[in-house]
UniProtKB/TrEMBL annotation:
Residues 31-131 form the Thioredoxin-like fold domain. One of its GO terms (cellular component) is mitochondrion. SUPFAM superfamilies: Thioredoxin-like. It comes from the Eukaryota. It comes from Indicator maculatus. InterPro entries: RdCVF, Thioredoxin-like_fold, Thioredoxin-like_sf. This is NXNL1 protein. It holds the Pfam family Thioredoxin_8. One of its GO terms (biological process) is photoreceptor cell maintenance.
């Protein structure tokens, strides 16, 4: 999903830090269901929904509620009239939220690309950029955090590269050269399991 923001800058930690390098974007966005939240802190409809979305997000990602944060990331696409209004709004929202910088012209491109005509709007995307839900506002209102389970299942079906958190973490612990070694030596999981069961020691490198 980082490819959507290639060459762009996102603000993290309530605009205190920039997330702009390819590696940083990858860490922040890859292998996660992405919510693009189009809203304004001054819009009355947005104000009530933002509180709901805040609770929705925290219940899926905050360690107070869950042992493992869900594979979920949110980018706020501001419709605020001033930078101070955007900053004030984000101060009241979760620290894990990312945001497009105020006044970034990419905002208009996102609005056109995802046909956003009113706010609040929550576009749900797979890690590869496929649209799961064009506007999930009503779904979040009616289902709450349970909506994420359906999105994750759909992401698994639509995105062949999408992995569950446990698989993604296991992948991260492997050597960067493992894919090359697996190709060269044609390693398979089954033979390695058999060796382990026979007590022949650790797996071959």
């Amino acid at each position: 999903m980082a490819s959507l923001f290639t060459g762009k800058v996102l603000m993290a930690n309530r605009e205190q830090d920039e997330v702009e390098t390819e590696r940083e974007l990858g860490l922040a966005l890859d292998n996660k269901v992405l919510l693009l939240y189009f809203a304004s802190g001054q819009c009355q409809r947005c104000q009530s929904f933002s509180l709901l979305l805040k609770d929705f997000f925290l219940r899926l990602t905050d360690e107070f509620y869950v042992e493992r944060a869900s594979q979920l990331v949110l980018v706020y696409v501001s419709q605020d009239e001033t930078e101070e209004q955007q900053r004030e709004f984000l101060r009241r929202m979760p620290r894990r939220w990312l945001a497009l910088p105020f006044g970034d012209s990419f905002k208009r491109e996102l609005e056109l690309r995802f046909a956003v005509r009113e706010v609040p709007a929550v576009v749900v995307l797979t890690p590869s950029g496929e649209v799961l839900v064009p506007n999930a506002v009503q779904e979040i209102r009616s289902l709450g955090p349970a909506a994420f389970g359906a999105w994750r299942e759909a992401a698994e079906l639509l995105d062949r590269n999408f992995r569950l958190a446990e698989d993604w973490e296991e992948r991260g612990r492997r050597s960067l050269t493992e894919p090359l070694r697996r190709l060269r030596y044609k390693l398979r999981k089954e033979p390695r399991k058999k060796k382990a069961s026979k007590g022949e020691g650790e797996e071959e490198e």
